[in-house]
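@channel anyone free to eyeball this complex?
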Amino acid sequence: MLEVEGLSIEYETETGILPAVRNVSLEVREHESFGIVGESGSGKSTLAMGAIRYLASNGRVTGGSVRLNGVELLDLSRKELRALWGSRIGVVYQSPLTALNPSILIGKQLAEVARLHLGMDRGAAMTRVTEMLAKVAMPDPEAVMRRYPHQLSGGMLQRCVIAMALMTNPALLIMDEPTTALDVTTQAVVLDLVAELKREFDSAIVYITHDLGVVTKICDRVGVMYAGEFMEQASLRELFQRPLHPYTLDLLGCVPHFDRSPEKRSLVTIPGSIPHLDELPPGCIFAPRCSFVRDACRAARPPLDPVGEGHSSACIRWRIVPTPAERLGAATEALTELRSCSGDGAPLVEVDDVKTYFKGPGEGFLPGRRRHRAIRAVDGVSLTVCEGQTLGVVGESGSGKTTVARAIVGLTPATEGEIRLHGRKLEPAAESRKRGVLKEIQMVFQNPDASLNPTRTVGDAISRPLVLLGGMGRTEAATRARELLEAVSLPAGYYDRLPNELSGGEKQRVAIARAFAAEPDLILCDEPISSLDVSVQGSLMNLLMKLQVEQRTSYVFISHDLSAVQHLSDTIAVVYVGRVMELGDAVTVLTPPFHPYTEALLSAVPVADPDVKQTPIRLRGNVPSAMDIPSGCRFHTRCPRFLGDICREHEPPWRHGEGSHRIYCHIPLDELVQLQAETLVLASTTEDA
Amino acid sequence: MLRFATRRLGFVVLTIVLSSMIIFAATQILPGDVATMVLGRFASEEAKTNLRHELGLDRPLVVQYGSWLGNFVQGDWGDSISTRTEIRPLVFERLKNSAVLAAVAFLFYVPVGIVLGLIAALRRNSWIDQTISVGSLAFIGLPEFVSAVILITIFSIELGWLPSQSAIDPGTSWVTAFPKLILPAITVALTSLAYIVRMTRSSTVDVLQTDYVRTATLKGLPPYRVLFTHVLRNSLLPTITVVAIGVGWLMGGLIITESVFNYSGIGRLLLFAVQRRDVPLIQATALLIVLIYGVSNLIADVLYAVLNPRIRYN
Amino acid sequence: MSERNVTVEGISGDPAPQPRGQRPSTRRLVWRRLVRRPAALVGLIVFCFFLLLAVFGPYVAPYDYQAQDVKVRLQSPTVQHPFGTDQFGRDILSRIVVGSRNIFLLGGTGTLLAALIGTAIGLASGYAGGLADEVIMRLLDVLLSFPSLLLALVLLSSVGPSNLNLVLVVTILYVPMIARVVRSMVLDLKTKEFVEAARVRGERRSYVLFREILPNSLPPLLVETSMRFSYSIFLVASLGFLGLGVQPPPPTGACRSMKPATSSPSRPGPCSFRPAPSPFW
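replying in thread with the prediction:
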């Protein structure tokens, strides 16, 4: 259906010509979905958009061929191309919130495609849109058509975009990170939908993603891109079980695996960073970072050659590439012993029934008489962080997990409840806390670009807490700052650099060094890795674990990514709309009985292993607003194990399981075990292999 | 939506009331004594006291302010000190003239500005965009008296096409007077024109780079339909605000332009009042201008909200 | 295979990758903002032009600005007098050159004062937030609800056009505009993580404001100030034209020579704005 051969794309920039995609080939058949996986800057979107000839004005195709059902796309005129766009070629984009025109009704935008390409009149087009929306499982399609994009949630919008793309049963459907902007539970629903539509429609799907977990849900074949070239192409299963390129192998090793063992391992890291397009190495482009490199690799660029049935690799040494299991045994240092001795620490920080309410938007006309509904961002949370341990806090956006952390550190003071450090009560606001207290709690923030003051050098950033909280002199602080840089694996020469000279991962390392500078007892990590590439995420998680072992620091690790949380944490708290739903040791939280919400999260996490079987539990609707929290159990509106009026009317009790394990649910634990034991959520076959 | 409009209205009313205080306060700290100014330096103290009493100048400032504003709202704007005539008909006569001039300017600069801005955006970085951008740059902030001189030099003196003076005898119909309006209209329009061009260009360039325009293009829509259905609807929204702010620029520009061209409008009336220190006249004209400016901003805000579904449905 | 350029006219595809290189420094940021806001670029050009005139004006002026030469009264532009002469036979170009120095000083002082006060207000208001911020901003909005020239006229009409008053008027007019720019930067920056990190390590408020926030607000502040400066020159010049400008001597640039009331009716050319008979002039 779609055949791309030797496609090359260049961008012309001020500094010269950047060869973004070089001599790339791929083939996708009808009903088949081909996944393009790569880190940022690998050229995966450029490849897909260039293939359908939609490029920035400074981009151009410099060679190759793209045939769709035998038609050479590169020879078409503008007008012929337009006849294909939207009819034979459909596209689904990364951000559903911006993909639709904000000032045109949804129905009209979708009908436009039917009228343009199917020659329908207004009425027929509208009927067709209704049908299509029903096909993508949209509740109440007719009401949705009369809405504007900003009135719908991300998941609903993405369904509209998918309906629009499939309206004409296109030969080629390009999906460019369609679920990246969505919450895990919504992502699972959309992925299910795509998998189902794949069977119903004839389209060949090109699915672009950075997420190795998502690939396993959708794709039949996968190509791994690196700096503008394919490193490897194989069927999904084969790629994950028997990767024959070192880059694929490394990439798989960067992703934390779900395992229920209390032992923690470090992840595989890829040294160096992706090469810039204007200074590609002469031989294999991965050679500088490859652990299997030989001189021959640097001599000539290896082509993507077949190495098996439907399997090709751009590595001349593919025969010696080990299996992931072999690699796992050989390359990981066990941190287990070090970790187990920090096992039962005394309570360091206790969060006791903390509430953080904000003033919501007012209702009514007159300023004095307006009533404000409270935004109950955190609504009664109790947690304990033990010395030398990591508490993982996981939840979807809007769960209040960040607000809890900000309450602990004092940036968003708690409006009610108590937070104790070493048993002593903390002032709610950071501004009213004493230096000695401030020193003990530091924070690493989500956005590496905003974490560091762009006008101060890296050295300044790290020295400042040393001087202010550590009471050091200037020279002493400078020496220590250099040591800290080395501790976070950065060259000491970075001391004089400005943040804009650093990559995202490097900035986050500096932020970690700054947090550690005051030698705090507790560091709050608020999604510190979520904006980074997979390989960088892996190395940062390793760094955090290494430093914890060395410094005996406690972490609160906040993330929406359950696999990262389970990888790092000793205890896990699952939060939903301002409340803890389940709390306990990492192992107990990840084994039945689960809170139904935890169960849903676990079924929704895209696990980067095609052999893992997950229960198909999906949540309906959206996370409720913190202004409008449902009565009774706040999860009852979406709960797959909803019992009836009791859930709607009464707050559930805490049900205590083994150890510190607690579940906030009306269903008794033994019943939950029975319900959930039948469907094992995780089967870690990679462990056994 | 109604709430939004009401709130905006509230803000505008508040702003205008506060502005009126500034106008009143500024004009009350005049160093000279009004009575002396009116009656002459050699008038008897008694006569001056009487006049002050008659004008209410012996009352506390707050009371004076209250009665002034109250009277203004009720339509009693008092008498001009220098012309000794009632202010209201005088101001309205001049306002009418200014409105005609402004309307001509408006009809010129709004469509021309939008079209030029669109052309520049669609042909981004081409020579035509460069020309339009540099040209509009040159006119932003060029003082009216300079552009007036340039226009007069070219069109009146060198080419002799249009009159350099725009004094219009009362009773002349606007049709016959139209040639006299052209140069002053262009003069006041230039600054606003430049702003509209720039705003239209930049917002259109922004919209052209949005994801939804990409969606529309990849639907296979022809470029003109992408432009008319998907781009303009969004890119012209910010322009509306600029059009309204342009009314304010116009008001400021009128003061100078009317003086240069000797056109009997509200701007020149204000200047005259300032030169004669005619306090009631200054107060009335200034407040009226602020009022017009405030109302046009209100209209812009509401129009923006009405045309923007994101605000309309919130 | 031939090269194919694949772009729709005016509608471009996905953003191209940025060329490698270090991200821009503050100086580059200022420059980029200038280019993106051409009004600011014009401001800079005008600024430089007037700066040059102010410094070197007296040296390049072809004549003494006060020298009268009755033989060449009211001349249209000639080679000797590129801008012509006024009714006393003084060279207009020389008068502009010398007068501009004064405009530069007045506009510059007013803008500088406005920048200082505006920055202080913007920083305080933005960082304090809440009701105080709301009230301050509403009050500044009131000043912004006047067309600048109108407010200048009203104020000058009461206090009279002295040099000091001109400076003050420029300051009053531009404080709200500069305060707004600074405040919006503060609002943006104070939620940034590096500011929160400073709060978490217990920095004093003054440190946060002056070491963390202010340096990062400088690029837009500098751009706004230079733009305001050029407008202040236009404003002072316009006021001069209306007879409310710099008090003689020395003259205010072009304006005084073109001022309606002082030009002669008989003189042809651009300066013949003799008002037609009107009840007011």
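from a first look: Chain C touches chain A at residues 1, 3-8, 12-26, 192-194, 196-197, 199-203, 212, 215-216 (CB under 8 Å).
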